[in-house]
Design brief:
By secondary structure, this protein is an alpha/beta fold. The chain is built from 22 helices and nine strands. A four-stranded parallel sheet has the order 7-6-8-9, with helices on one face. The protein has a three-stranded antiparallel sheet with strand order 1-3-2. The chain has a two-stranded antiparallel sheet with strand order 4-5. The longest helix is centred in the N-terminal third of the chain and has 19 residues. Pfam families: HTH_Mga, Mga, PRD_Mga.
Length: 497
């Protein structure tokens, strides 16, 4: 894992311990932790006692031979990595090289408060990561990041997106956040796309990185088809005129087709579908699957809907989201990180609780790429699965509708209060019968029920096929939790044909 080269050994050890404890969600015996992390108990205790990354976020403890972790309600592993990135001397160096023009080794060493020998070792270590992940590197005469310009920008887009939270603007006065936001909002107003605050920030961060690099004279040099279309649509707009004047006054560069292409990169690709005002590249029906064509994803969803028997009320939006994910690839909002991939946590939930749905979606997406298998990286596959699942309107509700109602018998000592509560609370998914007879008759309990919920010991009969849930105290909330777990399991195990 080359990302460890961005941190000291001590920092990385602490991050490994935090990640392990967070993932387990329960305390871990010290010998198991020592074995997993290949280190001594003394080292781990030092991580806990001298923790840097949990300060203000939560706390690690070591008690009774067990390690555990707790977080503040609003915090999690993402905030830990965010803090770690800002503490990393390697990433501080990369940030300096972004904002400052060419520097000497001595100047950079002074900025980082390290010796020249330490700086050279730091550069060598960081270059291992940069070369492997982005095929770029730091040279030392003068000190600067070199390589393909697109990849350099991509590194910094991911870095600034992950290291700073939603309320922070990392570019200071170099890029006026308000004016850049005005330009983004103006262009979006000409499309049929609705974006949220998270996407708005992502585009601004991307635009900020690209604009600073462009103004320093670094260019990708690719003309994007939507740039001129946007300029034509905005021609004569008072708002656009004002923004263009501010842009030229600050950067002495015209806000023209080249500038829009450089600043917004693949978000100006003419392969994207933004609405009726924008011409599309696909003029004829292509019946061979091509992941870069919208029609392919519409056909994909048609077949998926037919196979799974689960409605897709927003099919066009789903298709456009999947298509956009392919076109944007590493510039997609779900890929805006260097270290912590939070979509994996969501996918892990689906793998565990809705495994057949997950497998069906994954297999179907792979089929779309059968003619271009090399185009489907593991990161793109995960992103497409995640995009589909979070874009699918009323997914859980529609999966639930494919289930026949679960037949539930409630046997309780009280006067049907729990059964009545359950009818109101989960009656949409359970066909609930409240047992009201004065005696237990075997034939009554051997009827065709899926579950029996009771606070009474009933006869042991091999003829009773239902799952029996016993409760010493038949409290509605406890019963509801147990039944919800059962329902989620049924939904997850449902083999949708």
């Amino acid at each position: 894992m080359t990302v460890r080269n961005l941190f000291t050994t001590k920092q990385w050890r602490e991050l490994e311990l935090i990640a392990l404890l967070t993932k387990s969600q329960k305390s871990l015996y010290y010998k198991d932790v020592c074995e997993r992390l290949n280190c001594s108990l003394l080292t781990l205790q030092s991580c806990v006692d001298n923790s840097v990354f949990m300060d203000g976020i939560g706390q690690m403890t070591y008690e009774y031979s067990h390690f555990s972790i707790t977080y503040k309600e609003e915090c999690g592993l993402k905030e830990v990595y965010q803090k770690a990135m800002l503490e990393s001397q390697s990433l501080q160096m990369m940030s300096l090289l972004f904002f400052k023009d060419e520097m000497t080794l001595t100047e950079l060493a002074n900025e980082l408060f390290v010796s020249l020998s330490t700086l050279k070792r730091l550069i060598d270590k960081v270059n291992i990561y940069l070369k492997k992940e982005f095929d770029i590197k730091i040279i030392t005469n003068p000190v600067q990041v070199v390589g393909e310009e697109y990849q350099i920008r991509l590194f910094y887009i991911k870095y600034f997106s992950e290291a700073y939270n939603m309320s922070e603007w990392p570019f200071g006065n170099l890029v006026n956040e308000n004016n850049l936001g005005r330009l983004v909002s103006l262009m979006i107003s000409k499309t049929d796309i609705n974006i949220n605050f998270s996407m708005f920030r992502h585009i601004k961060i991307l635009g900020g990185v690209n604009l600073i690099r462009y103004c320093k004279g670094f260019v990708v040099g690719e003309s994007k088809g939507l740039s001129q279309i946007f300029l034509d649509l905005l021609m004569g707009s008072r708002e656009m005129t004002n923004i263009s004047q501010l842009f030229f006054h600050k950067y002495t560069i015209p806000l023209n087709e080249t500038a829009l292409s450089e600043v917004f990169s693949d978000y100006m690709s003419d392969e994207l579908f933004l609405g009726g005002s924008f011409p599309t590249l696909t003029n004829k029906m292509n019946y061979l699957d091509n992941p870069r064509e919208l029609t392919t994803w519409i056909r994909f969803l048609d077949k998926l809907e037919d196979d799974m028997k689960v409605m897709q009320p927003n099919k066009y939006e789903m298709a456009r989201a999947l298509h956009t994910t392919v076109i944007l690839d590493e510039e997609d909002i779900n890929r805006n990180f260097l270290i912590y991939n939070d979509i994996e946590c969501n996918l892990a939930f689906f793998k565990k609780n809705y495994k057949f749905v997950y497998k069906k979606v994954m297999k179907s997406i792979k089929h779309v790429f059968r003619f271009v298998p090399k185009a489907l990286s593991q990161s793109l596959l995960s992103n497409l699965i995640y995009t589909l699942l979070i874009t699918w309107e009323d997914l859980f509700l529609n999966i639930g509708k494919t289930l026949s109602k679960i037949r539930l018998l409630v046997i309780e000592k009280s006067q049907g209060s729990v059964g009545s509560f359950l009818k109101e609370y989960i009656g949409d998914y359970f066909d609930i019968t409240i047992y009201k007879k004065l005696t237990f008759e075997p034939r009554d309990l051997e009827a065709d029920f899926d579950i029996i919920v009771t606070d009474t010991v009933i006869m042991d009969s091999h003829e009773i096929k239902a799952d029996i849930f016993y409760f010493s105290q038949l409290v509605p909330s406890k019963v509801a939790v147990r039944l919800n777990d059962y329902l989620r399991s049924r939904m997850g195990q449902l083999m949708l044909r």
